[in-house]
Write a structure and sequence with these properties.
Blueprint lengths: L2 E4 L3 H9 L6 E4 L5 E4 L5 E4 L2 E4 L10 E4 L6 H11 L5 E4 L6 H5 L11 E3 L2 E4 L8 E7 L3 E4 L4 H12 L4 E4 L1 H25 L3 H4 L8 H14 L7 H11 L6 H7 L10 H11 L4 H12 L1
Parallel strand pairs: 1-2, 1-6, 2-5, 3-10, 6-7, 11-12
Antiparallel strand pairs: 3-4, 8-11, 9-10
Helix pairs in contact: 5-7, 5-8, 5-9, 5-11, 10-11
Length: 293
């Protein structure tokens, strides 16, 4: 397949390796040959086909994986405006929500398949030494939204041939799944960033008292868009404990002095709440604190 991967971060590199036989084009600021290190310490090297954002990429592209974080979405949108065609099937894999508002247009709804992944990978680079490395914490699932696009079936066949754990679901199911993950991210990511602690430590901190109002406020907003969710606090606490040693992606951004994804997580909830006239004071406070951080 003709595949492009927008982004050069940890997930982009993971999917670049998974689809390596298709020689995907990886698009970003910089990337050399990189190393994947599995949880059992087995290692593999990969030499990507790479180019910078501003370089021409006429395609035609059957599939584009958008693996940038939210601050990189304007670059992804500009690239898609220039180089996607009607036959291009686009899968955003970033945390949070708002992909539809950011990418339709230039894309049509049938072209866009928002996805949720439980793959966990972390960058461990040394650019000064030209070393590019990603540590695989967990090989999970990728859940994708069925749209009926012509290249959707082709990608399903390709994923099956590669034995990938990719599953497609109806839009209503995916919307619920995305909101469930959004609520978890809206608690674990900012609280870990404010505390500087790994996920498992959070439930023991006084800061965890904010988890309940964060969940309740987000549940109210989800309800307003037709996604009934309740009792998410226990599920979020269980998730934090089951990923106890993980540092959230937002904490990693803070520690590396990179822009965070707060606008696609907490910011999205605040914007949706404003439209529905629902008070979310805890989320507004968290959004302000993370911006200060």
């Amino acid at each position: 397949m003709r595949i492009a991967i927008l982004g050069t971060g940890s997930l982009a590199r993971l999917y670049g390796a998974l689809f390596e036989a298709d020689h995907p084009l990886m698009v970003g600021r910089q990337l050399g040959h990189y190393q994947l290190i599995e949880s059992d310490n087995t290692m593999s090297w990969h030499i990507p086909q790479f180019q910078r954002w501003e370089e021409p990429a006429p395609g035609p592209w059957q599939v584009v994986l958008v693996a940038v974080k939210w601050p990189g979405m304007p670059l992804a949108r500009q690239w898609l405006e220039r180089w996607s065609q009607a036959e291009t099937y686009v899968i955003p894999l970033l945390n949070g929500m708002g992909q539809e508002q950011a990418l339709v247009p230039p894309l049509t709804k049938i072209q866009l398949s928002p996805a949720v992944t439980t793959d966990a990978a972390f960058r461990s680079d040394d650019p000064a030494q030209n070393i590019w490395r990603v540590l695989i914490k967990n090989h999970g699932m990728v859940h994708l939204t069925e749209t009926g696009h012509a290249n959707e079936f082709s990608l399903k066949q390709r994923a099956a041939s590669l034995n990938l754990s990719w599953e497609w679901h109806q839009p209503d199911y995916m919307l619920r799944l995305r909101w469930t993950k959004l609520i978890a991210n809206s608690v674990i990511n900012p609280l870990s960033s404010l505390s500087g602690q790994a996920n498992g430590t959070l439930v023991q901190l006084p800061l965890w008292r904010l988890a309940e109002p964060l969940c309740l406020e987000a549940e109210n907003v989800a309800q307003s868009v037709g996604v009934p969710l309740a009792g998410t606090l226990k599920w979020v606490a269980d998730l934090a404990l089951s990923t106890a040693s993980n540092r959230s992606s937002m904490l990693q951004d803070v520690l590396s002095h990179q822009p965070s994804e707060i606008e696609s997580i907490t910011g999205y909830i605040v914007r949706q709440a404003s439209q529905a006239g629902i008070p979310v004071p805890t989320h507004q406070a968290i959004l302000h604190l993370i911006h200060l951080l």
